[in-house]
Structures are given as C-alpha cells and as structure tokens.
Fold this protein.
Amino acid sequence: MKIEIFEMERAQSLWENRVKYNLTESGVHPYTLEEFLGSDEIEKLLSIRLGYGQTNGSEELRESISRLYPGTDLDNILVTNGSAEANFITIWQNLEPEDELILMLPNYMQIWGLARSFGIKVRPFHLKEELKWGPDLDELQGLISPRTKMIAVCNPNNPTGAVLSDSEMKEIARLAEEADAWIYSDEVYKGAELDGEETPTFWGLYDKVLVSCGLSKAYALPGLRIGWLVGPKKKIEEAWAYHDYTSISSGILSNWIASLVLEPERRKKALDRNRKILNENLAVLEEWVQKHKPLFELIPPRAGGVAFLRYNMKIKSTELADKLLKEKSVFIVAGDFFGMDHYIRIGIGTEKDYFKAGLSLIDETLEEISGKSSI
Ligand SMILES: Cc1ncc(COP(=O)(O)O)c(C=O)c1O
C-alpha cells in the first residue's frame, strides 16, 4: 500500500538530532531516569526480567492510567508504543475505505495522512485564528453526513496550543451523538496547560468516545514510548487484537517506570516542573515577538510545548525553515506542513538558554530578510 509521506515527522526524523538548535520538539525537555527515580527504584529496574510482559500493558500501569478516567477499570485501557500507535490502531480498527472522518485542523498530521492513505474520506473542520484558535462548530455541523463514522480532535491542540471550552466539548459530543459517530480525542498534551488548569477529557461525555494519551509531551518522557488508548471495553479488547499485529507489546521496563510516573505525587511533580519550563520560555518568546513587532502575530498557547506564529514576510514557510536549518542550524516547523503557509511552529519546551540562543540565530536571519520583504 502506498502512503502519503508524513512530511513533518519525516523532516524531524532527518534533522532533529543533527542540528545545533532543535526547536521543532513539541514536548518538554526530557527527563533522565536519575532525575526521576530513587536509587532503590533504579536497583529494582536492574532486576526486571526482560520478557514481553503483559502485552496490553502491565496491570500496575493500566491501573494507574485508569485512575485518570472516571468510571474505567483495567479493561478499558490498552497500553501502546507512544500515542502514535494508539492513533494508528484507532484509524485502522474503526474506519473502512469510503467512510468519512471529520478531522480538526490544524492538527498533528498523522491521522490526516494515515486515514487518506487508507482510502478514508477526510473532511476537515477548522480552528480559526479569528476565534483565538477556537473551533468553527457550524463548519463541523455542516460536514456531518450519514457516512460520518468518526470526529477526531486534538485537545489540547498541536500546533495552536488551543484548548476547547466545556461548552465546545459538549457541543461536539452532541453532534457526534446525533450522527451516531465516534469521537476520537488525541489528548497527549493534557497536563501541559500553562495556567495549571488541567483540560478535561472527552471520556465520559458520550458512549462512543475513544481517547489517546501518553507520556511523551506533558510528562517529558518521550523515550519511554508509552501511550494508551481508553475506550469501551469491547472496543479496547478488539483494539488489543490489532496491537498484536503492530508491535505485540510495549517495553516491559517502560511499563514499570510509567506506572511510577503516574503515581499522583510524582505525576504532579512532573507536570509542575514542565509547566514552569513552558511558562518561562513563553515569556521569552512573547518578549521576542514584541521586539519584532509587527513581524509576528502570536495567540499564546494555552497548553502544550509549542507556539504557532503567523509572520508578515514575503517568504514561504518552507523556504524560511530551510534557510534557518541550512544557514544557522536552527530547526523550526514550517506552517506548510499543516497546509498553512506564513506560519511557523516553535517549540517552547527546551532549556531556556538553548531556547534563547536559537531565537538569537533566528534574529540574524530575520535581519537579513527584513527590509526586502515585508508584506
Ligand atoms: C497530537 C499528537 N499526537 C500524537 C503524537 C505522537 O506522540 P507519541 O507517539 O510520542 O506519544 C504527537 C507527537 O508529536 C502529537 O503531537
């Protein structure tokens, strides 16, 4: 089967470890195990036998995850290799060619590319800048048809950092229920809210809800490759059979560490540490945007590790990103990857000095371009 190239992820795979300043990362500066575990726990880690483990996720881990979703127990949870695998399984499991999927855009483009490669009809509804990246729910309503099988959202959103309000979530649930469609909510940025007010989950708003999440972003642990899917028991049992084909199991060491990470106190500590980093860097970025006024427009993200900026220069976003990559070894995400030229996405989860150094190099490029090219 031919696939559509996942352009952003491909570019990241090629460059993220080769550049001096990688500002494409959408999570927070990753933890080391030493920062996270006590010496007795590291000792215990060394003694774990490296078997497959329970392939749908260890009981301890599913128990910890289930605590985050009222009304669930272990059988509502499937542990996956990152939330990327949860996304893959969900699309593969639930949609047939010619089904219609209504997808929130802009978005992490995995579901977009995957569903289209599977022959599913993807019909986008948009978050609008004029609504401070709020959703156009009239547009969503207008897209619903008898073929609509699923409405997929990313909340908090990548790349805008927007968070749906309670009433927007309820309205999306109402529309889905009316259409008898599934809601699929990618919530991998839940917990990375800059004001500390945790985004509610879609789980529980309606019977046909599936949720993915994981430890890569809000928890700053992408290297563990732990994600999960939450859903009605029958769906999750069936999804497990799909998981037998994709990766069999997630890593046994990661399962054990993840169950510790989700202990309430440790979880809070991690989210607090990460929020502090995000807030500090957002302040740096806002000052930088101010300095460059009127070159950039920024609606500050409410959650997540990225800021999405519109710029007023006559250079295409891919060209700007390439120029920064080749001339300054600074890597940012071009808006073109989201089908939105004249925007760029900048990660705000890195260490502060690194972040500032990356921005200064962008300054040099802006100086070269400016004057010649304001729109
Ligand atoms: C919205 C969203 N979902 C899923 C993923 C995949 O992340 P992971 O597989 O590391 O959990 C990403 C990665 O950037 C993302 O932004």
About this structure: The longest strand covers residues 121-128.
